[in-house]
Specification:
Helix content: 10-25%
Oligomer: single chain
Radius of gyration: 18 Å
Structural class: alpha+beta
Number of domains: 2
Strand content: 25-35%
Shape: globular
Order of helices and strands: HHHEEEEEEE
Largest sheet: 3 strands, antiparallel
Distance between the termini: 30 Å
Length: 209
């Protein structure tokens, strides 16, 4: 384990030092620092934990996940517009499995003068403690090229205030991007953004589509 951790820490050090950081306000710097801290923790866990989704051969040579440069213009805050009625739907997995879900609402945002919306779902699970988690998966013009072809996720947790942060710098790959034994929920077609979202996690391996 020692042999894995030393090069991983060194690689993270050089990446952080080599990237020229833009001028941030104190609040923005706090956001950026927290994201970088979470990325380092994830890299360490992927390299060392038994639950890591990485294949053994990939874990052996793992030096950290790849990300686009931080872009806080792709961070949005606001409410989810809830649907008036309960709309039953189905989320399809990458292996064709079906997951019953509620169409919860949509998150509207404006980027570069244009309005967009992302559909948000609540996947129905037997474990009721997981019902607070909402599913927001999306694809964009980088999908299958610079990012994982099946799409990326942003985690949201249902809250009484109906205030959410959709930060594309936090967009991450599902486990099926690293290991074919997993099946992952596919984003709906209406959640394809017609512009390149160059923020968040990049594709893990060129052949991992």
């Amino acid at each position: 384990m020692k042999n894995i951790l030393i090069p991983l820490v060194i690689a993270l050090f050089f990446v952080s030092c080599s990237q020229k950081q833009p001028a941030y306000s104190p609040e923005e710097q706090k956001i950026v620092s927290q994201i970088l801290k979470e990325r380092q923790a994830k890299d360490l866990a992927f390299a060392t934990e038994d639950w890591s989704p990485l294949l053994p051969e990939d874990k052996k040579h793992f030096r950290g996940l790849k990300y686009f440069p931080m872009d806080l213009s792709l961070r949005f805050e606001g409410p989810i517009v809830r649907y008036d009625s309960t709309i039953l739907d189905t989320i399809i997995g990458t292996k064709g499995d079906l997951r019953p879900a509620l169409k919860y609402g949509y998150f509207p945002f404006t980027y570069q003068g244009k309005e967009y919306r992302l559909q948000v779902y609540k996947i129905l699970r037997e474990d009721t403690s997981l019902q607070k988690y909402l599913f927001l998966g999306f694809t964009d013009e980088t999908s299958g090229k610079e990012t994982y072809g099946a799409g990326r996720y942003i985690d949201l947790v249902e809250n009484a205030e109906n205030h959410y942060v959709v930060d594309f710098n936090l967009a991450y790959n599902p486990y099926c991007a690293y290991n074919p034994r997993y099946t992952c929920a596919l984003p709906p077609e209406e959640n394809h953004l017609p512009f390149p979202v160059r923020a968040g996690e990049k594709i893990f391996k060129a052949h991992a589509q």
